[in-house]
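pasting input
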Amino acid sequence: MIRRPQSPLSRYLAPTMGVVAAIALGLALARAEPIATREGLLPPGTELNEDVLDQPTELFASELAGGKRSYLLNLGDLLFSSPAILGGVARQAGISCATCHQQGSNNAKLFIPGLSRRPGTFDTTGALFNPKADNGVFDAVRVPSLRGAKYLAPYTHDGRFATLREFTRHAIVNEFAGPEPSPQVLDALVNYIQEISFLPNPKLAAGGRLSPEASEAAHRGEALFNKPFRRDAAMSCASCHKPDSAFVDHQVHDVGTGGWIKTPTLLNANFNTPYFHDGRYDGYDQVVDYFDRRFDIGLSESERRDLVAYLNAVGDAKEPVTRNSVQAEFDELAQFASVLETAIREHNRESVALTVDVVGSEWRELGEKIPPQSDTSVRGGIAERRQARAAVRGLVLTLRQVEMAVATNDFDQAAQVYADYRQQVVAAATDLKRAEPWSLFNPPVYEAHVTAMRRLAGLAQ
Amino acid sequence: MRGNGTTMLRAGLAAIAATGLLASSAHADDKAKQPASIWEQETLTGDWGGARTALKDKGIDITLISINEIMSVLSGGLHRAASYEGRIEFSVDTDLDKLVGWKGATTHFTIYQLHNAGHVAADNVGSIGDVSNIDALGTTRLFTAYFQQTLFDDKVSVRVGQIAADDEFLNSPTSANLINGTFGWASLAAANMLSGGPAFPLATPGVRVAVKPTEQITWQTAVFSGNPAGANCNDLPQACNRYGTTFSFAGGALWMSEVQYAVNQDKNAKGLPGVYKLGGWYATTDFADQHYGLDAAGVVVSLANPAAVAPLLHRGDWGVYGVADQMVWRADKTSLNVFLRGGVAPSDRNLISFYADGGFGIKGPLAGRADDVLTFGVSYAKISKDASALDQDTLALNGPPYPIRDEEVIFELTYQAQIAPWWTVQPDLQYIIHPGGNVPDPNNPNMTVSNALVAGVRSTIKF
């Protein structure tokens, strides 16, 4: 057999085909991104505790002082509700900071199988939200409330982060696989978190001392709280939980629960269950029992009850929950959307896009609280409901127009559309309030709706 | 025009009958000519004992081609299934000069018998670019039927009748060897024009004029009937015009024009041959906006809004494109051609606003296989920003998950093995990224239609 001299073609053909195949394969892999529902992405049995009529109360320091919410605060507040600043599964499943920290507090019912050991806890180094951060240990920690966070440095349960800014970036990038946040995103988020106030507690007076409004038992407990331990006179409960310092000492301590753990605040703690860094305890009685044993304090039964009464008084708050309503949603969305005014003027594309995304989602969710005609668990108000849902759709699409105008650099048009949007909101408010009696903001309607949904879920199973 | 078409059909049938008669009389003649080996002759049925050549000499050329293929979706797409498609082409070309002494006049018609086994490859993949360029609704239909007159030493040619744009426009000879339809009638035209435009399997009444001022330059322009499906079509365009005899004059006019520059076409030319084309089209009728519609009060609203009850119409549509097909290397019995095509269309009224494809073909890629052709192509079809914006609206209104259409990318590698001059067997491999442009999978709304790998084999027999 005669060997044919290799032609230049066949010499180049194999490598060319190889390169082409590699490009093809690379493109194919890069492009294969299936969409999925939240139900498909999160493990079965996940409880995000989202459909609640009563929301944790959220107060901002500036408003408590008689001022107003700043642009940065509003931007931070809406970013806190934005899955778009996160990445991976969180973004796809519509998870945001606010999913775990509802209204800037915690979420005691949150449960994600595989990541939560108990309700209200979450493993921030699990594989689901960022495989790159998976440490192979099931080390769920409780979701802390962010109320008063500016007084509670350092951050995370082991105090790894000196500043909120470092921690916030870490949460976005490492815990939830998000892109590197821009400086303005971090500024806004930190500003928002720093604005979240402790809720006022009439049982506390200046210096973290109990006021006369607290019970006698609580006052007896206060004395015990400050009393030196019998085994170590240099120590008391108050030596770490300093009453005049938001009940923290900004230190980590080994109290036998598994390493050095940051001293948690006791303020508003009645609403921050479960307790301890891993959320192992549900009540103050268990907490007091533990420390009594750990430090051999030698508390009597009645002393324990007094200490629990004291913790209940310190951890209390006036109006810890707020009933949600159409008006409350409107007020919040007006604050969120006000970001657009500044962002459009400053040609700030990122802020416009993020604001439109969040405000649009919030409107959509508000619209979903007005059941469509097809929802047989709700009777009456069909015309009102239809009108309200149409009004919400109109608002969502008008916001999209703002985004599209900005995408083409037409900021004058964007400003014009935003002005139209504000007009539309006024009209929509009337429509929505008319439909409110047949909405999920009305507790009997909400109950009927939830019952019907459960029945449907039961049938599906 | 309907009458005209019927006349043409009758003429065609008469031609078939005449052919039969001539063939049988020729068979009675002596067998003077020794037939070539079956593996060497141009057609499977040979020269019919000399009758075929005799007919051709008299001005009648008969073509019968059967294409059969199996395309199997190995992964992704809508259904992991194999499909069968078949097409029988029957064409008759007459040279009226030879037939009746009418100088420069010819006629042509093509009838297709199209068949498949239910699901076709396109249904299985769900792509914009049709996996097979013979895929069509199962039927027997008239495709093209026209009269052509050349004038001034063939420098001018006029074609009138039921004609197809994909016969003469937007063509690259190299990419034509690929099986996916987009490498022929590109999805820039197929997905944007009314009912897919005047292209396989739907031709329309029209006129084409071609002028060839020099050997290198050809300018051709045509006007087609705007909607090949006919008026008031609420079904698949092919179903509305099931037999190709609708002879539609609906949908205004579609103008196409193309300038071609051909180099080194002469057999003795020293340089390598190539052809370069620039073209465009303009359709006169109304085209629906991809993003907006009208509500009951006539106000412009997003089509994602259930209040949209009517389309927002734009007057006219257009597209421009370019084609380059150049041989870049040639040896004894092997040559390498590369092709590149691309074009744009306005985003507000078209699904595809930008399109490009490119690739190469190697003739005689292996020793002793001088007539085989290996072809590779990749196409990119960008979904217009207005169509994507509609998805963004839908997402904003209904919440996630909802995919935003972005693009469809098709890779194809195919090898045409010539078993005999009348028979080629063509294994084929296609990989389609984002079939449909990144859309929800109707079988599983939680997923987009996933990237599809398709393998198939086609047999083409010239009888």
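fyi The radius of gyration of chain B is 23 Å.
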